[in-house]
Amino acid sequence: MDKASHLGVVLDLSPKQWHLAAQPSNPHPVTLSVFLSHLLAFLNAHIACKDENSLALFGALPGRSAMLYSSTMPVNEEEIEPADANSYRPFKVMDSAIMKHIAEEIEALGEAETEEPIGFVGALTKAMCYINRVTNGAGSTSSAARNDDPAGLADPRILVISVSPDQSSSYIPVMNSIFSAQKLKVTIDVCKIFGGESVFLQQAAHLTGGSYIDIDRPDAVLQYLMMSFLPPPGLRQLMSVPTQDKIDFRAACFCHKNIVDIGFVCSVCLSIFCQPVPVCSTCRTKFPIKTLQRLNASRPNAAPGTPARAATPARAATPAAPANSLPRSTSINPHAVPRNASNGSIGAASPPMHMNGGPR
After folding, report:
1. How far is CA 318 from CA 289, 324, 325, in A?
2. What is the pLDDT tens value at each position of the chain, 360 positions in all?
3. Contact in structure between 32 and 18 (CB atoms under 8 Å)
4. What would the DSSP string read from start to end of 263-326?
5. Whole-number Å distance between alpha carbons of 283 and 226
6. Where is this region: Disordered (predicted)?
7. Every domain of the chain and the residues it spans
8. What backbone torsions phi and psi does residue 287 show, to the nearest 5 degrees?
9. Alpha-carbon distance 254 to 240, whole Å?
């Protein structure tokens, strides 16, 4: 509890999604400017909790990501508006710097760029790289000094503020980021402001021990931020933090990048496919024709207007073929970390899944 806390914030700055969130037809509309006023109050509270607390803010913009503010970032005093008698100078400097950089990044977006996918993975990766630098120190001397003083180590966490839906094509990079966060012992919290449930962010919060909250009142987001996300991970074991009632463990197939309820997993590299394939596109393993026929026969009936029957998992192997050359239809092993044969990157990992898509 005496440790300093580092907070990395990944802010979704999709102009299209924020425009939809501000529509009067929503039950509780919220504009980006109103939300930023709540966010700045939350960031000020984090800095005020302890002098050694650090902060980094990253923006996920269409097609790219950018660092908007960090505690170590030099500030040009000439660009900061004079503070009045009722404002605290460090808070004023931070608020002005954040608002200035957000305005510059949004104004720099072209009309065509606003339709590009949001650069969430890049912002999340930059946040973890910054955490690695903060916790380990820039040089060997500072790193050794920090290791000698456990109280001086930062307690890192990342808060993701999302208004955009999942991007199926980013499944593998997101899972790589989650595994990196686990290795760095970084807690990932998720605050869903607008849009449907996010499958990938639910898994990120669950696997790293964080909280996932889909708020009911976006216009009162400050209360959610203060009560749920302000305490650092070291204090949460003494508090009752919100937990997820249900978690969607579905994965995205490697062939079409779609989130699937039923997956067919390569028994060699654990790549996931939405339908049986004769050759694995990742490790180039060839599967017997009889096995493909058996897997196709076990698939549920997807014809329109007919109820889908529950499919049973295919056997791991047949006596006529080696076990390592057969695909398996089914459940995904949460402890198996598939790796791409071409670049060595982690492919996918997810808790077990029934054939009908429901978590066990």
Report:
1. 12, 11, 10
2. 577 889 999 999 999 999 999 999 989 999 999 999 999 999 999 999 888 889 999 999 998 999 999 988 877 766 666 667 777 888 888 998 999 999 999 999 887 777 888 999 999 999 999 999 888 765 433 444 444 454 456 789 999 999 998 888 888 889 999 999 999 999 999 999 998 888 899 999 999 988 999 988 888 899 999 988 998 877 877 777 777 777 878 888 888 878 888 888 888 888 888 888 889 888 888 888 888 888 888 777 643 433 333 333 333 333 333 333 434 444 444 444 444 434 444 444 333 343 344 443
3. yes
4. -EE-TTT--EESS--SB-TTT--B--HHHHHHHHHTS----TTSPPPPPPPPPS--TTS-GGG-
5. 47
6. 298-360
7. 5-236, 249-360
8. -110, 145
9. 38
Is residue 357 within 8 A of residue 261, CB to CB? The reply is: yes
Q: Which residue has the tokens 């080696």?
A: 322
Q: Under DSSP, is residue 332 helix (H, G, I), strand (E, B) or coil?
A: coil
Bridge partners of 58? 10, 67
Could you give the CA distance from residue 243 to residue 211 in angstroms, rounded to a whole number?
6
What DSSP letter does each residue of 146-200 carry, written as one string? HHH-GGGS-EEEEEEEE-S---GGGHHHHHHHHHHHHHHT-EEEEEE-SSS--HH
Architecture of domain 5-236: 3-Layer(aba) Sandwich (3.40)
Task: Please state the pTM of the whole predicted model.
Answer: 0.73
Task: Give the pLDDT score at 197.
Answer: 82
In angstroms, the CA 200 to CA 314 distance is: 27
